Amino acid sequence: MYQRIEEYALNAWPTLQTLVYDGWLLRFADGYTKRSNSVNAIYNMSEDNLALKITKCEELYRKAELDAVFKITPFVPVSLDQTLEERGYKLADPSTVMILELDTAAMPKLTHVDVSESLTPKWVDTFTSFHNGLSERNQAAMKKMLSQTVLQTGYFTLYQESIPVACGLGVIEDQVVGLFDIVTSEQHRNQGYGEQLILNILQWAKENGTTHSYLQVVQNNLPANRLYEKLGYREIYSYWYRSKTIL
């Protein structure tokens, strides 16, 4: 089941191009997020020719004018992480994958939300306003990526007195909803709006027949981890990235 969650997450957070190289998935999206610009070696677990495969991946990412980034999960070849470290790859963004059974999720108390099942300019404007450092190139890549998903997706914005205070999205596949890009506006943080946004997404997901939810969170994001544990999410596995340049 855990590997299925990894597959759901790959499908839910799309990319602009995917190459399959000897069972490895190489994802490219103009550098927007490590998720969409990394090598995912979750198929073909053979460790034969590992150095050769890494070199080939490096060449392909160099051609795309991107740094080669490898995602290390429990599902990749056992020696891949050590081999990358020996080649000068640094560890980045240790993260946790968490899961929740939705029959335990509470009802939201704040329900003034906009939800659209397609990407809208209004949602994009709110999202980018909450991410002050999002470059024009990243904005363009994000809009392309999210516009081409074929999975059922809800784009949510939570309002307080007509002011957008939090936004994010939920993506449904096989009765499982993934949460992505949950963000609260800087001036409204630590007031419970992120929690209420998530509960609205989970309520929407339950109404659409889902039974479980998953999310991915960076381990050093302590406020987010505390929130997810409060909501009842539990860790099922961890992952990290390897890159020669810490991005």
From TrEMBL:
Gene3D superfamilies: 3.40.630.30. Residues 97-247 form the N-acetyltransferase domain. GO terms for molecular function: acyltransferase activity. It is an enzyme of class 2 (transferase). Its EC number is 2.3.1.-. It holds the Pfam family Rv0428c_C. The keyword Transferase applies. Keywords: Acyltransferase, Transferase. The keyword Transferase applies. InterPro entries: Acyl_CoA_acyltransferase, GNAT_dom, Rv0428c-like_C, YpeA/RimI_acetyltransf. It comes from the Bacteria. This is GNAT family N-acetyltransferase. It comes from Paenibacillus dokdonensis.
